[in-house]
Design a protein that fits this description.
The complex is a heterodimer. By secondary structure, chain A is mainly α. Chain A contains 14 helices and two strands, in the order H-E-E-H-H-H-H-H-H-H-H-H-H-H-H-H. A two-stranded antiparallel ribbon of chain A has the order 1-2. The longest helix of chain B has about 35 residues. The chains are: A mainly alpha, B mainly alpha. At the A-B interface, helix 1, helix 3, helix 4, helix 5 and helix 6 of A face helix 1, helix 2, helix 5, helix 6 and helix 7 of B. Chain A: Its main location: membrane.
Amino acid sequence: MSRHALALAFVLPALALYGLFVLYPLLTSLWGSLFQWRGLRQMGFIGLGNFVRLFEFPNSDRMFGALGHNVLWFVGIMVLQNGIGLFFAYLLFWSRKGAAFFQSVFFFPAMLSPVIVGALWRLLLAPNGAVEWGLNTLGLHEGRLTVLGDSQWALWMLIAIDAWNWMGLPVLIFTAGLRQISYEVFEAARLDGAGYGRMLFTIALPLLVPSISSVTTLSFINTFNQFDIVYVMQGVQGNPNYSTDTLVTWFYRLAFGAEGSVGITDIGLALALGTLLFLLLSVGSVLMLRGFDRLSVRP
Amino acid sequence: MTMSRFFATLPRWLVLLLWTAIVMLPLYVLVVSCLKTTQEIYADPLGLPARFTLDNFVSAWERANLGRNLVNSFIVTAGAVIITLVVSAMAAYPLSRFQLGWGTSMLALFLAGIMLPIRLASVELFTLMRALGLLDSLFGLMLVYASIRIPFAVFIFANFMRVLPRELEEAARIDGAGELRILFSIIVPIVAPAVAIVAIFTTIAVWNDFFFPLILIFDNDLKTVPLAITNFVGQFRTDWGMVFASLAISLAPVTAMYLVLARQIREGAGIQGAVK
């Protein structure tokens, strides 16, 4: 057997699985978005017809609503999770003692299924729940706590819970990144009289660009795939009144028939939305990685 | 007080301990609530139970059929991890160690999968699974999970294998060992850390997922733990003690794994985060 044939034989099982269950459905979804659908049956070719419908009433409301929520979610995660995560990582970098302990505790929620996280927080935040009890006892709040039923608050609560869930990840990535910076650089700066804040902005951040790049891209991909927490906490409609609806919950309703009270599927629209999201995610993450790559400095 | 003293002492610890409390308190509430009656949970959410009882666990176990769901989750997770490890190690071996003209592009094709949002292809995946007769099948679910995890696994294996010295397999080849033998009895043991990273992160991802069971599994007897829990929580929301007990049962296995493997998981998450 030639070396090439041998290599191919070794690659084949992985390639077959990956091709069949990942690449094939993805390519047929992209292609299928150009067709008209009746139920799960593919009808005639209609070009960009499905895409046009995405931007027309009544779908445009859902579309821009969900897109806006995803954008807010991304911004919220960048600030609440990655910003604070970077701060924690910087604190841990300067206090090596106990760092492993705190990293392990902070990362623990990431071990839990979003189902557990969502259900746990829904119970904690419910009227009569532990959070209401705590706030009332501390005198910070009075009466019933109804944040999850309040369209002003619900989305932000979900974002905060998502940040609680994944906080450990930026902490781990940023501490690992900080440890790769040679300690002498900080020592020299300190001798020159730079404070911790100054060192963060002039030394740590510029040298952390590769870590910031992966954390940002990862958050971007995860945010625009947001589904689980919404489904578990607010239902597939993104209650209340679609205020926590995301692109993927809407996609799910279109694809699997939970849109409207009678449960109608609209596969054509779902595939068009999927294709659009696919483009957004791939173009967005490539641009992000490129941009960060240009920013990064070699120590 | 100067910035350096601010960072050097007490406030730093307070900040870190504050977040520790924010992480631990909800989990503490979950654990003590398992042991309380619903009335007790309402009256005093943070207090310890008046009387130690496992009633909630018993009724959660009996009414939710959690035993069956746990077995399903174990089967799917173990199967997916084994398939992912074997096929990814096999693929990464020639792609990282043979001089092949097409090796780099093949590797790139696999790596693209790390970023592909497969959920967006779930309609066509559903149709495909129906055509293959793999709906409502734990084996089908296993194959889907393995396929989704292959790109990450190939990437990790290829990175670990690339740096090994070439003499390793050359001597074995002269002795007449076959390539499969070389891979599994020489290379794989040396890249044990890669095996651990792939195994741990595949386990976490598969054990916790509920999206694919949601679209591919309809039979109650075949549901995995996360999917069963979503239904259960909605159904028995008034019996909080029992709901908390079912959550505790479902998080016990990953918690046990975390306590044993915390160090590998910490380091592995750093690597995974850096590549994902």
